[in-house]
Each structure stands twice: as C-alpha cells, then as structure tokens.
Amino acid sequence: MGCLLLALSGGLNTLAFAPYTLWWLPIFSLALLVYFIQRATSPRQACLYGFSYGLGWFGVGISWVHVSIADFGGLPLIASLSLMLLLVSYLALFPAFAAWLTLRLKQPKYMPLLFAASWTLAEWLRSWLLTGFPWLSLGYSQTSAGLQHYAPLIGETGISFLLAFAAAALAQAFTLQAVFARYSYIVIAGIIFILSPFLQPFKGWQNTAESVSVLLVQGNIKQALRWEPDQEWPTMLKYLDLTRPHFQADIVIWPEAAIPKLEPLADAFLDNLNQAALYQNTAVISGILDYNAKTGEAWNNLIVLGKKTKHAKEGDYHYGHANRYSKHHLLPIGEFVPFESWLRTLAPIFDLPMSSFSRGAYVQPNLEANGHHFLPAICFEIAFPQQIAANFTSDTEILLTVSNDAWFGDSIGPQQHLQIAQMRALEFGRPLLRATNTGVTATINASGQLQQRAPQFSATVIKDNIQLTSGMTPYQVWRDWPLRISCMAIFIVILFSRRRHRDLLTTQTK
C-alpha cells in the first residue's frame, strides 16, 4: 500500500513542472517519501520506497519519450512499452539510492540535512552516469515562482537541495516528539522561502544600454519529411521565404538542422544565404549537419553566415570556417548508439537516420555574429549547466539553444524543455534565445521570463529586441562547488556522529 501511494505521489510531482507549474507540490510530494523512509524497517525497504516514488515520478513525467519511440521507433507496442519501462526503472534507481542512503546513515536530528545531501548526490549521479539524464530535476519547478531568486546564487542544483531540505523538515514535524526538534527545521525552511524575493540585489548582473534585434524562425517541418531527399530544397526555401521579409534584424536564428542538406553538398545555397545576409547587414545562425566523406565522421553543427563583426565587408562563411559549434553532449540512440555493432540489428529505433555523430569539444569558442557573442547549446545540452558554465566567457552576451522537438509531438516534453532553458537564463544572468522546428520557439530575458513565444506547430517567426546584460552571477563564479562541499561536510558530520554514538554505546555496555 505504501509503495502504491508513493508511486501516485511521484506521478503527481509532474504537475510541479511545465506546463502546469504547481511549484509548491514537490515539498509535499517529497515529504511523503521522507515520512515513509523514516518508518522503514531496513535500508532495503527504504530503497523500495524510493524506487516506487521514482517509478511514478518518471513514469508520468517523461511519458512523452514514448511518443518518439512509438512513432519513429518501428517497434510493436509491447516492445516500445517495455523499452519505456526499462528507462523509467533505470531513472527510479536514483531516488531509490537516495532513500537507501538516508536510512543507512539515519540520524533523526540531522534528517533534513541528510536527506537533502543524499538527494543531491543521487541527482548528481543521474546527471552524469551513462552521459546523464537530468530531466525533471526538482529545482526546475521553481523557475517562475517560489525559490527562483536563488538561481543566480546557487543554481538549479542548489534549489533542489533546498526543496529536499524543506520536504524532509515537513516530514520530521510528524515524527519527532521534542517540540524544538520537530519545528526548528520547519522554521529554517520557512525563512528560506521568505528570503527568496529579497535576494534580487545579489544576482550579480545588470542591464546595459544596448539591445539587439533578433528574428527566430520556426519552419514547422514534419519529422517524417525532414530527411527525405526530395524535401531538401523545399525545406531550405521555406526557411528563406519566412526570413526574407524580416532580414533587417541584427541576428537571424534558424533551428537545429534547419538546413537538411549535408554542409559539403549545400554550398550553392549557403553561398547565396551568406551573401544575402551580408547585403542585408545581418548574420544568420543555423543548424546544419556536416559530414567528412574521408573519415566517415559527422557532426551536428551550428554555423554563422553573413556578418561576423559589425563592420565586416565580406560574408563570414566558407566551408570549414572556425565560426561554428559542434554538439558535444550527444543523445543516446538518437545521435549515437552504444554497442552499435549489435544494437543496430535489433530494431529500427537503433538505426534511425542521422544517429551516428561525432562529439564536438567540451569547451568551444562562442559564436560571433554581427559583433555579438553567443554561447550555443544544441537541444539536450541546455539541461547541463556545467557545460554552459565551462563555455561562458567574459564576452558572452546571449545564450542560444536550438532544437527539434518534433520527435515528441503535442506532449509536455517541449514545455519542460523550454522551462529548462528559462532556468539557464536565471542562473547565468544572460538573455536566452530558443529556436525550434515545431516549437516552443521563444525569447527569454535574463530574469528567466518569457518575452515572446511562438505557437507550436505553425510556420512563423518571432521578432524581438533583446536587452543585453553585464556582470557575473555568483553561480557562474562558484558553480556547484559550495553545494558539493556542504554535502560532503554533512556526510562527514553524520558519520562522525554515528561513530561517536557507537563508541558511547560500547563504553556503556562494558
């Protein structure tokens, strides 16, 4: 009964994230998990409670992944559902680990701190193992309310720690007998939430007097047609036709792989676009795939065409030029296939078009377009703040992410993806542009607020003026190191306390 209740609680946790944004929900949902952990009779039972919570959390929260498996995977329903169950079960191992560790090191008076540190450790592992899948991390629920003002200080990971602490403090209020011990942590958690709006002066960045006019183009090309050879020119001309009436913008952004023709084979179109952008006194940043026939390597790239600097007299683009970005964090199955030699023979999902890319470097120069510096991330990469931090420079003016969420249809996946992008703007104090094939295309200011968003599944453009900012957020300077050190200190204190308690018991029994 407890496992079923926790699975339902985990499933409800999905409502905390976009598009529902019930930001207060994780406190109560997670508090129920902690309540059951405290009553578990063994670490194994606590692990089962955490696993049940995770099954509900990810089973509902990332159910949108099944859209791509069912529509493009070529698998029978039972096989696609089994694959989803495998993915959800893997992700549920991480809250299971957090629950196991919390009971294994159980110290009632330190429970909120212990659970928060255990949860943070588990979430760090989830963001790293097997290339990482940090989707639905709790802190994203606070993007528009609640603890959002902590983001420039401690980032999304720090906010997740605070949410886990608050949830455990709430659960402890129904467990301990001593009044002070029961309510002291709740008071601290309440102060944390009350302080949030007063933290704005410490965000570390400020607006400048400069703004940039931008044009984001959403082509709305059906996924089934994107890689059809006879659709290459119609797709490229569609993007050009959508752009041409608005070429007066400083910067034009096309989404991931907007140009469906391989870069070495698209020279005529690219040369024309390069000259057109130069003539219109602008720059175009577009996604395109590059392929080296000699080595067999392929890259998922962003390239800049037209003006690199404001005073440029020639178009910047030529094949192989350095003003480009190659995607580093590749998506398993979608962009590379682990154990490729035998997995590709099992089912069509392991042999999707364009699913064997090479990685770009972890740190790459920012893109420069019409005198402005963009820190790029392609699709899934925007979910990794450490990669963004590693590529952030003193010249970085705008964060840029491009994607193709057509894989996931009319699901909540693209909405969650947009929310993740909003958090990156909050953390780094820079405006963010998000251009996608089918939506959600949007402009986001440095406070993480949506300025404009395009309707999904429409061929349209967004025109906007982006206010530039300067300065560095504390999170950009310190990243997650204060949180990691704090969690390490919590574990050390608890281990020392447990050892001291054992020594005391040993002395008393002699």
Structure description:
- There is one protein chain.
- The chain has helices at 2-12, 25-38, 43-61, 65-72, 77-104, 111-126, 151-172, 179-195, 232-243, 267-279, 340-343, 385-391, 413-428, 474-478, 481-509; strands at residues 205-218, 251-253, 283-292, 297-306, 324-326, 367-369, 372-378, 398-403, 432-436, 442-444, 450-453, 460-471.
- The strands form 2 sheets. It has a 6-stranded mixed sheet. Strands 6-7-8-9-10-11 form a 6-stranded mixed sheet, with helices on one face.
- Helix 1 packs antiparallel against helix 2 (25-38).
- The radius of gyration is 24 Å and the shape is globular.
- The protein is built from 15 helices and 12 strands.
- It has 510 residues and is of the alpha/beta class.
- The relative contact order is 0.12.
- It folds into 2 domains: 2-202 and 480-509, no CATH class; 206-326 and 367-477, Nitrilase/N-carbamoyl-D-aminoacid amidohydrolase (4-Layer Sandwich), CATH 3.60.110.
- The two termini are 43 Å apart.
